[in-house]
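Schema walk-through. Below, the input block comes first and the output block second. Nothing else is stored per chain. Lengths vary across the set, and this one has 205 residues.
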Amino acid sequence: MSVNGITTNTGLTTGKTSYTERSKKDDSKGSASEKASTTEAAIYEKSDETASVTKRDRKVDTETIARLKADAEQRTAELRSLVEKMMVKQGQTLGKAGVLDFENGSNLADIFRNLEVDDETREQARADIAEDGYWGVEQTSERMLDFAKALAGNDPEKAKEMLGAIQKGFKEAEKMWGESLPDLSQKTMEATLDKVNKWIEELES
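--- output ---
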């Protein structure tokens, strides 16, 4: 084989190698360009999807807020109604016990003051309003506290709403009663508010 033949073959080989390397570089550039294009498209689609999800989330949040608000209003109304009924029931029991003795009033106060009951009912009523009785200060205030806890859970803000509901309940009970609530009910109110306030302090701490 001649030297020229070797030289020519080497040149061809070198040329092919050079052409192949350029082709790879061009392909590499093309691939990079395609990748960039693909990435940009992916980002664009993701942006649309995110915007869509955000709109759905906002709609859900609005519905959730409305539902929670209605639920809170219902719970406070339930507690307020409970307080009213419990205070009236306490007064009714006082009337049965024959121990209502205060200035003339109207509405429920007069009705319960003039209740006529037998001796057995009167004795049971007196036991119910005793210090350790079902309608006594301790048990009645404890039931109100338990109900408030069941409605508010461990949320301090909801607990404060329960406190407001209890206060409104006492005021409404007084309106229904027609005059100042009996001493037993006044003491029950004080004990209940004191327990609820302490509970709120514990939640906040």
